[in-house]
Amino acid sequence: MTDEPLLAEIKQAIIRSLRLPITADEIGDDVPLFAGGLGLDSIDVLELVLELERAFGASIPDEDTGERVLRTVNTIAEFVRANGNKMPSR
After folding, report:
1. Which one, of 14, 25, 1, lies nearest residue 69 by Cα?
2. Comparing C-alpha atoms, which of 42, 53, 55, 43 is closest to residue 12?
3. How far apart are CA 16 and CA 83, in angstroms?
4. Are 39 and 18 in contact (CB under 8 A)?
5. Which domains does the chain have, with CATH numbers?
6. Of 10, 59, 61, 66, which shows the fewest CB atoms inside 10 Å?
7. Is residue 14 classed as helix, strand or coil in its secondary structure?
8. 83 in Cβ contact with 58 (< 8 Å)
9. How confident is the model at residue 5, as a pLDDT?
10. Could you tell me what percent of the chain has a pLDDT over 70?
């Protein structure tokens, strides 16, 4: 079962926080965010972590968690469902 509103809001959060010149439709749910996918880097990680905390209340406390969570939109969504305290507004 997918949660399209959550996935869409995560994609918008990625675009918003990183000021990417793409649309949410251009980000696949399972496309790697780093290394060959969107090609994000370590500076992008900081911006994205801050945005996820602000938008969803999902805190990524350490680098190990970040490496596990920030792989794809789907892995972020799983983390937000389990750890976030805000759900996206439609």
Report:
1. 14
2. 55
3. 21
4. no
5. 4-83 (1.10.1200.10)
6. 61
7. helix
8. yes
9. 94
10. 92
**Cβ-contact 17, 47 below 8 angstroms:** yes
Select from 35, 33, 37, 39 the least CA-distant residue to 52.
33
pTM recorded for the entire structure? 0.88
Q: Give tens-digit pLDDT for 43-61.
A: 999 999 999 999 999 999 9
Structure tokens at 21: 């010149």
DSSP 8: H
Tell me the C-alpha distance between 70 and 89, whole Å. Answer: 22
Q: How far is the C-alpha of 86 from the C-alpha of 59, rounded, in Å? A: 12
Which SS3 state, helix, strand or coil, does residue 41 take?
coil
